[in-house]
Amino acid sequence: MLHLACDTHTHTIFSRHAYSTVEENVRAAAERRFELLGVTDHFSPMIHGVGPEGASMREFQEFINMRMWPRVWYGIQLMHGCEADIVDLDGHLFGWDVPVTYHLSVPAEPPYTMLQNQVFSQCDYVVASVHEHRWADDATREQVTQMYLRALEHPKVLILGHPGRSGLDFDAEAVAEAARDAGKLIEINEGSLFGRNHAHERCAEIARACARVGCMVSTASDAHISYDVARLDRVRELLEGVDFPPRLVATRDAETFQGVWRRALGL
Ligand SMILES: [Zn+2]
Ligand SMILES: [Zn+2]
Predict the structure, then answer these.
(1) Which listed ligand is nearest to 129 at the C-alpha?
(2) Residue 47 CA: which ligand is closest?
(3) For residue range 158-204, what is the model confidence (pLDDT) as tens digits?
């Protein structure tokens, strides 16, 4: 049976439509004998209604104190990040054009730092995902492919989140080759695999493309409650079903995942 020991994309109550705390998620990962948990709350227009006119860090303070978390808790290597929305066809990530005009309790002075820089600087890594995508409704396959390639180029992005779920068509092999060359990861996401639906077939295609070109994958529950943390049965079944090479599974143990993380982000 394919061994998976890391859950690299999970949510806590700071994602608002999620229901568990960091500690509850860590304990769930420990109970399931995992080695590593990545907590990656949404950094997204779904949660945060801000625009180019500016943002207050009061609305984002869950992201600016993560250094307080223990690095090892209940025996689990605990990493902190965020799941940032891809917001346009240029592959920009949420917050890239939003100046921070207010700190926690006082107005900021120009030149303003950008919200994305402020949040990403506190993250071990970023998962880049497409959620709402009206801006891509008329996009060609080539444009969507370019969008993912550009998102991958961001120095803080380690993982492309659930690319099989958005419904946007792209050249999976080209994206997998770029991820491989950057030493970055494409995610196989449990949350995309409920029911035998279109996303299931698309995720299998993406896994096969990764295997063909030698791109590593990460595995994640995308849990929005601790009950789902470290439950990766569908991900395991999918990877086994396409004979995915275990050596390309970055999340088979914590040491492998952290090695990939350090090399990809130049740490
Ligand atoms: Zn969510
Ligand atoms: Zn997501």
Answers:
(1) 2
(2) 1
(3) 999 999 999 999 999 999 999 999 999 999 999 999 876 789 999 99
Pairing of strands 217-220, 185-189: parallel
Which residue is it, tokens 């859950």? 7
Q: Is the pTM of this model over 0.85?
A: yes
Domain boundaries, the chain: 6-265
Q: Does residue 222 contact residue 162 with C-beta atoms inside 8 Å?
A: yes
What does the alpha-carbon distance between residue 100 and residue 56 come to, in Å, rounded to a whole number? Answer: 6
Give the pLDDT band (50/70/90) at residue 97: very high
Q: Span 6-265: which CATH code?
A: 3.20.20.140
**Centre of ligand 1 from the C-alpha of residue 52, in Å:** 23
Other beta carbons within 10 angstroms of residue 173's beta carbon come to: 17
Residue 264 has pLDDT above 70, yes or no: yes
Strand-pair category, 6-10 with 36-43: parallel
- DSSP structure class, residue 55: E
Q: 131 CA to middle of ligand 1, Å?
A: 9
What's the 27 CA to ligand 1 centre distance in angstroms? 20
Query: Three-state DSSP class for 146?
Result: helix
> Which ligand approaches the C-alpha of residue 127 most closely?
2
- Starting from the CA of residue 15, give the closest ligand: 1
